[in-house]
């Protein structure tokens, strides 16, 4: 890294695709090379992420049924899991997607229940890009977080076979 | 230093007759003069946004940061705060700083940070081939407004005066000597200096004829008076082809600035470099 001032040196920073001298270019060959270079940077960042905790597991680690969540739904999922003896899997990093760590966390899980605060099951859809199937979906999108009662009653409905890939109903 | 020493090998892609050539030439002359007067060129950092104006940093062999659309000023602010000894000069366009980056422009003036903004005000989006911008006049017929724009233009110097800029001037790309004089004064000014340059876009909004007829150089005005500056600035609101357009320095006052507020945190540069290197090595 170089910072000004450096006598006799000119330091160029450029957000646009640029050549080795730091001059903007739209040359197709350089443009392609720069795209490839950025891809490599992405891969090395993904490699570095392997050293970090990107998926967390709580609750009954041997549970055959797991709640899948992200962000602040962790708390309510952990509370609900205590009563029912469930495993809780929280995805911390969404991109680069922690495919391997999530598959490790899913070892022994036979039924995966997705718990999210949005109307389109964003995490479940992201998982499906990697062939990871969620069996049930509990989605809340009324602008309020899950209470323990909300989640418990939805889990009860799932256990009673009343909803599958469903949404909270009024 | 010869201004030609500040050229680069980059191919110039501005249209023939573009007003940007005058800005480039004037700035090169001023920076070469500064270098000769003991202010070394390596202490200058140029910052640009995105637009035709931004190519200027590729055409000058001077430290530069070619930033993203509307963001020249935040980058420049950070550079100045990190090292207040640098002279930081921003280039931006009317689309860049009055539309996408308007909040940054107002805050740079409000903070009165010691950087200079040269506004390449061609009153059209040239790089994207002719849409109306915040300074296009009412009725402007462009690609996005084929029936004519329904909006009145902003008056950028008026906005800067209200926001707290401590130096406000206007130049025209047909008057390179005046541009040089204004650039020089703006860069030497301590505080946020704003130079609105009526920069003609020959391809999409050719105003040479109108500007040649209507512009005049203002003289003998009291640049320390807010009221007088406002009166001069409001005498032309970017909307009329019939009103005289004043050029020159409108406002120049000395007031406290943001970069002075952080001098006590002046970093030990050697120590900072070592820390950055250590964390980079750790990361790579």
Distinctive features:
heterodimer, A: 170 residues, alpha/beta, Rossmann fold, 2 domains, five-stranded mixed sheet, 5 helices, 6 strands, 35% helix, elongated, disordered C terminus, B: 284 residues, eight-stranded mixed sheet, 8 strands
Describe this entry's structure for a reader.
- Chain A has 170 residues and is of the alpha/beta class.
- Chain A has 2 domains: 16-51; 55-159, 3-Layer(aba) Sandwich (Rossmann fold).
- Chain A contains 5 helices and 6 strands; from the N terminus they run βαββαβαβαβα.
- In chain A, helix 2 links the parallel strand 3 and strand 4.
- The N and C termini of chain A lie far apart (58 Å).
- By secondary structure, chain B is of the alpha/beta class.
- Chain B has one domain (3-257): Thiamin diphosphate (ThDP)-binding fold, Pyr/PP domains (Rossmann fold), CATH 3.40.50.
- Helices cover 34% and strands 15% of the residues of chain B.
- Chain B has 9 helices and 8 strands.
- Chain B has an 8-stranded mixed sheet with strand order 2-1-3-4-6-5-8-7, sandwiched between helices.
- The longest helix of chain B is centred in the first third of the chain and has 17 residues, at 20-36.
- Chain B is globular and about 60 Å long.
- The model of chain B has no long low-confidence stretch (mean pLDDT 95).
- The interface between A and B is medium-sized, with 21 and 27 residues.
- Strand 1 of chain A pairs parallel with strand 2 of chain B, so a sheet runs across the interface.
What would you say about this model in short?
Chain A is of the alpha/beta class. Chain A is 35% helix and 17% strand.
Structural class of chain B: alpha/beta
**How many structural domains of chain B?**
1
* N-C termini distance of chain A: 58 Å
> Which class of chain B in CATH terms?
Alpha Beta
Low-confidence runs of at least 5 consecutive residues of chain A = 166-170
Assembly type of the chains comes to heterodimer
Domain module count of chain A = 2
Number of continuous helical runs of chain B? 9
| Largest sheet: spatial strand order of chain B | 2-1-3-4-6-5-8-7
Largest sheet of chain B: 8 strands, mixed
